[in-house]
Amino acid sequence: FFATMNALRNAARFAPRATVRAAGSFQQQPASTAFKALQQPVLSTSFSSAPELYELGSVDHGYTDDRIDPVAEPERRAFTYLMLSGVRFAYASTARILVVKFVSSMSASADVLAMASAEFDLSEIDVGKTITVKWRGKPVFIRHRTDDEISTESQVPMAHLRDQESDDDRTLKPEWLVVLGICTHLGCVPISNAGEYNGWFCPCHGSHYDTSGRIRKGPAPLNLEIPPYKFTDEAQILIG
After folding, report:
1. Contacts from 28-32 at CB under 8 Å and sequence distance 24+?
2. In this predicted model, what pLDDT tens digit does every residue of 123-134 receive, in sequence order?
3. What is the tens place of the pLDDT at every residue in 85-105?
4. Bridge-based pairing state of the strands 191-194 and 176-180
5. pTM value > 0.85
6. With contact defined as beta carbons under 8 Å apart, do 76 and 66 qualify?
7. Mean of all residue pLDDT scores within the chain
8. Which residues of 43-56 are buried (b: 16+ CB within 10 A; e: fewer)?
9. Which residues are CB-contacts of 80 (< 8 A; sequence separation ≥ 6)?
10. Average pLDDT for residues 36-65, to the nearest whole number?
């Protein structure tokens, strides 16, 4: 291609000079010689007038043939908008269903929700006794405290406690104490009505808790944990 273009430039550059020379020589020659020169074939480079393939442009006329005229064909435009809107609505509905299913899969199942709370009857627990119930797979101590125990624990100075909590902050009703039966040291299950404070004693490493579930002696750093609970009746408690 570049060689052809250079040849065309050279031909255009030297063509006027050759024409002038040819004309001058034609005028100087006699008539017979000029007539013979006209009879001789002229050698010239033939150039095709047909356009090249790259000059034809795009041969795909689909854009112009299938283009919708919004003025001449308003019904086709409405149909196109209807189809686009329907597809977008289908995509949005599918995405919503997927999100709802994903969130639902992360929610707790029915059996887990059933274990989340448990109700217990307290009417058969005598004063001064402790029972152990199970909630979420963990032991829970429910103690029916005596008046002496309530009075003793309410008078303990805060300076004597490692994890300082008053007895009133750990109970909803003074006569009932509800704590998780897990030692705060290494997770052992303490023994009820034992230890130096007649509360709970963990024999694993010697932690002593009073009748308010507070750590009084031993390596345990914290008091026994209070689970979420409430009284649904005078003798009914709902844990969880």
Report:
1. none
2. 889 999 999 999
3. 888 889 999 999 999 888 877
4. unpaired
5. no
6. no
7. 79
8. eeeeeeeeeeeeee
9. 68
10. 58
CA distance 50 to 35: 34
Residue 108 has pLDDT above 70, yes or no: no
Cβ pair 184, 203 in contact under 8 A: no
Distance CA(87)–CA(9), nearest Å, equals 59
**Which strand ranges, in their side-by-side order, compose the sheet holding 130-135?**
130-135, 138-144, 176-180
The type of residue at 82 is L
For residues 215 and 207, the answer to whether their CB atoms sit within 8 Å is: yes
SS3 letters across the chain: CHHHHHHHHHHHHHHHHHHHHHHHHHHHCCHHHHHHHHHCCCCCCCCCCCCCHHHCCCCCCHHHHCCCCCCCCHHHHHHHHHHHHHHHHHHHHHHHHHHHHHHHHHCCCHHHHHHHCEEEECCCCCCCCEEEEEECCEEEEEEECCHHHHHHHHCCCHHHCCCCCCCHHHCCECCEEEEECCCCCCCCCCEEEECCCCEEEECCCCEEECCCCCEEECCCCCCCCCCCEEEEECCEEEEC
3-46 pLDDT, tens per residue? 555 565 655 555 555 444 544 444 444 545 544 544 555 444 44
Which amino acids are annotated catalytic? 205
Q: What is the largest CA-CA distance in the chain?
A: 155
**How large is the average pLDDT for residues 221-232?**
93
- Contact (Cβ atoms closer than 8 angstroms) between residue 120 and residue 128: no
